[in-house]
């Protein structure tokens, strides 16, 4: 039996809803779409620029939000396949359980032809880095910035998130600690929260 890599459609969740969008995409165009994603993922680059995203919405018949969800779902699918080094057949079996139907052949074809590129890239990335950064502490605060104008003074609240990371150096005998500080407006913080919810849904589905 194939190893189950992806959330099952019976469990619902954001991933299955997103990956099933592929069933609405014309098959002849979906292959090129997947090929771009897997090649760019291996290079750790964004698969499409803004102009291409706008054109893809029309070509694939998806809204901006649907297209973003589909790209994220395809990225997650290929990442899981590369991490577990699965065969194209096992990948297709997992996608079937996630509710994919019409686009299965496209995934099988691209993984057969180009899957090794991503697997190799992931392995090289793992070997070249002395260690992966680990989150050791999270701190937050709310900052209110006062912006002046001719008519009135406006209060602009910002959420400040500080993530303290520890990264082992070569030999793993010492670690370098650094802080990543992010500032969010109310809208940006809400969008970030929704992304975390999607990640949590995927983790819950896989556990």
Question: Strand order across the biggest sheet?
Answer: 1-2-3
User: Which bin fits the share of residues in helices?
Assistant: 40-55%
Number of DSSP helical runs:
7
Question: Which residues sit in consecutive blocks of at least 5 with pLDDT less than 50?
Answer: none
| Largest sheet geometry | 3 strands, antiparallel
How would you describe the shape?
Answer: globular
**Beta fraction of the residues?**
15-25%
Describe the structure in your own words.
With about 210 residues, the protein is an alpha+beta fold. The chain has helices at about 15-20, 25-40, 50-60, 65-85, 90-95, 105-130, 185-205; strands spanning about 135-150, 155-170, 175-185. It has a three-stranded antiparallel β-sheet with strand order 1-2-3. The model has no long low-confidence stretch (mean pLDDT about 85).
Helices and strands in order, then pairings?
Blueprint lengths: L13 H6 L7 H16 L7 H11 L3 H21 L3 H10 L6 H25 L5 E15 L4 E16 L6 E10 L1 H21 L1
Antiparallel strand pairs: 1-2, 2-3
Give a quick set of tags describing it:
alpha+beta, 3 strands, 53% helix, 7 helices, three-stranded antiparallel β-sheet, 207 residues
In summary, what is this structure?
This protein has 207 residues and is of the alpha+beta class.
